[in-house]
From TrEMBL:
GO terms for biological process: protein folding; protein tetramerization; protein transport. Homotetramer, a dimer of dimers. One homotetramer interacts with 1 SecA dimer. One of the proteins required for the normal export of preproteins out of the cell cytoplasm. It is a molecular chaperone that binds to a subset of precursor proteins, maintaining them in a translocation-competent state. It also specifically binds to its receptor SecA. Signal peptide: none annotated. GO terms for cellular component: cytoplasm. The keyword Chaperone applies. It is found in: Cytoplasm. Pfam families: SecB (PF02556). GO terms for molecular function: unfolded protein binding. This is Protein-export protein SecB.
Length: 172
């Protein structure tokens, strides 16, 4: 029988008996907000044009630890001028122990960004409001669908590389 700490989580050293997925750390890796045409842009009376760019990077840190970075860049244009550009890179270190490579790839491509997304959404919203603009709330993103599309693209290109295949940091 394993012991549990006060919040019901089995300590990491006891997870060696079976597969485990753990969140080791969640942190902001990079954040930026620019409003190059303020304050004049506040007087523009045009429909804003929003462009969202989403990306994800995975880096193997050790045999069982991975850093996942979810990056979001939101650009708002008013006419031909940039109203603002908000960029957030939210990161997490995740432990993946005793899992098959396919399962690791699925977790890195779906579950990890799902865990990071609420942090990104909050940070983007806060940045935009702090910049003096109306609130903007990122809509939910289907990371499972994006992962499935990534798999289709890999197969079409004949690539067998998974997200987990990268070399550990410092070993290249």
């Amino acid at each position: 029988m394993s012991e549990e700490n006060t919040n019901g989580v089995v300590p990491a050293d006891e997870s060696a008996n079976g597969p485990a997925f753990t969140i080791e750390k969640i942190y902001v890796k990079d954040v930026s907000f620019e409003s190059p045409n303020s304050p004049a842009i506040f007087n523009e009376n045009v429909q804003p044009d929003l462009q969202l760019n989403l990306n994800q990077k995975v880096q193997r840190l050790s045999e069982t630890a991975f850093e996942v970075v979810l990056g979001v860049t939101l650009t708002c244009k008013a006419g031909d001028k940039n109203a603002y550009v908000a960029e957030v890179q939210q990161a997490g270190v995740f432990g993946l122990i005793g899992l098959e490579p396919q399962a690791i790839d699925v977790l890195l491509g779906t579950q990890c960004p799902n865990i990071l997304f609420p942090y990104v959404r909050s940070m983007i919203s806060d940045l935009i409001q702090a910049g003096g603009f109306p609130p903007f709330y990122l809509q939910p993103i289907n990371f499972e669908g994006l992962y499935a599309e990534t798999l289709r693209q890999r197969q079409a290109q004949g690539e067998g590389t998974s997200l987990a295949d990268s070399e550990p940091a410092g070993n290249a």
